[in-house]
Design brief:
alpha/beta
């Protein structure tokens, strides 16, 4: 008999993926240039040439047995050392190899982090708007996800509602900054307040509370935006990172867990991740990708196009009457829909071949997400479609 739980999930597929599939079908019908697909957060800039060069060198000039052999369960030692050194240099914390565990992207990192610090029945808190996959990520571990309602004025943390949800059953708080879907970056003030609150609750409840920081957009931060490194402010921080966005490598599924060296169980948590892999079939990312990414750990793709696209859209949409909190990073924008029902709004947008994602599944009804990781010329051409959509509502 097949598993009923996963069969039921077939009726609740990712809205983002379904819209992206629709966009691909529509592009075949009328041509790619005529479909303004803002659904999927798939990076639109090339990977740095240095990564490609290293990959070619490894594939053609190295010992194939070593390059294509099994990785150690925690990741290749030299790779972990380079990533730890990069973190130490960039952020001033004493990371070592023993604090780093290699994963299949940020999703793999979160899967390990959650299992390392929660047990069945424990609670994990996150903040709306949030990445919809957090629900299965958390709930499939046996823990329970609790969601704090959004602060729609600024999309910082709604501390009043956060405190109401907190209880001794909370073992972890899951944050995402820069944030998908809002594009907002948590300020230093917000992070300090969060850290102080968690320290207070650790004392009150007498147990550790972990801050799991999901950071795949860490390098996509716009000019003059306050973007603190979360682990600098809270000892029990587990950083979950992916090179998908910084290096434009989403298909390679490469990332890591980095446990703050100030966490008393930092090395133990990393060792535990190797055992967690046995239970979830993770078994470490490909060796050749680990080796190649280690050579460019301090680099990024040319990410400037995202800020260019953001400014074009922000100016145009606010000029058309949309209410938008200006993004501080990522390649997402999160406007308020022109009617209360964002699903109906996004369906109406399809008439103009604008593919937008309603935010109900992000825990923020009435809003929609724009993933503007598309060519700038296409962003500019889409503005007429947005104008027609806005005019449709005015008339």
């Amino acid at each position: 008999m097949i598993a009923a739980e996963y069969k039921e999930m077939l009726g609740k597929k990712s809205v983002i993926r379904e819209l992206a599939e629709y966009g691909a079908r529509r592009a075949k019908e009328i041509g790619y240039n005529h479909v303004f697909d803002y659904s999927l957060g798939n990076p639109s800039v090339p990977v740095p040439q240095a990564f490609t060069d290293k990959l070619v060198e490894l594939a053609t000039g190295s010992n194939p047995v070593a390059v294509h052999g099994y990785s150690p369960s925690l990741g290749i030692d030299s790779v972990r050392e380079k990533i730890a050194a990069s973190l130490k240099t960039r952020f001033g914390l004493n990371y070592e190899k023993k604090h780093v565990f290699m994963t299949s992207g940020a999703a793999g990192a979160i899967a390990h982090a959650l299992r390392a610090v929660t047990q069945e029945g424990d609670e994990v808190i996150t903040f709306a708007p949030y990445f919809p996959e957090y629900k299965p990520y958390v709930n499939k571990t046996g823990a329970v996800l609790k969601i704090v309602p959004p602060d729609t004025d600024a999309f910082q943390i709604n501390f009043t509602e956060f405190e109401k949800l907190f209880s001794p059953k909370v073992m972890a708080v899951l944050i995402n900054t820069p944030n998908n879907p809002s594009g907002i970056v948590y300020s230093t003030e917000t992070v300090k307040k969060l850290a102080a609150f968690l320290v207070e609750k650790e004392r009150e409840y007498g147990h550790d509370i972990y801050l799991i920081s999901d950071e795949p957009y860490r390098e996509i931060v716009f000019k003059n935006v306050d973007a603190p490194f979360i682990a600098r402010f809270y000892h029990n921080t587990i950083t979950c990172y992916s090179f998908s966005k910084s290096l434009s490598l989403p298909g390679e599924r490469i990332g890591y867990v980095a446990v703050n060296p100030a966490c008393k169980d930092a090395a133990l948590i990393v060792e535990m991740c190797g055992q967690i892999s046995r239970g979830i079939g993770h078994n470490c990312p490909p060796s050749i990708i680990q080796l190649a990414v280690a050579e460019v750990a301090d680099r990024t793709a040319d990410l400037s196009v995202y800020e260019t696209n953001m400014n074009i859209l922000y100016e145009a949409l606010t000029g058309l009457g949309f209410s938008v909190v200006k993004p501080g990073g990522t390649f997402y924008m999160f406007p308020k829909a022109l009617e209360e029902d964002a699903i109906r709004f996004c369906n109406r947008a399809l008439k103009y071949d604008l593919i937008l994602v309603p935010a109900d599944s992000f825990g923020c009804p009435g809003y929609f997400r724009i993933a503007y990781c598309i060519p700038t010329e296409k962003v500019k051409r889409s503005l007429e479609a947005f104008r027609q959509l806005a005019e449709d509502y005015r008339s």
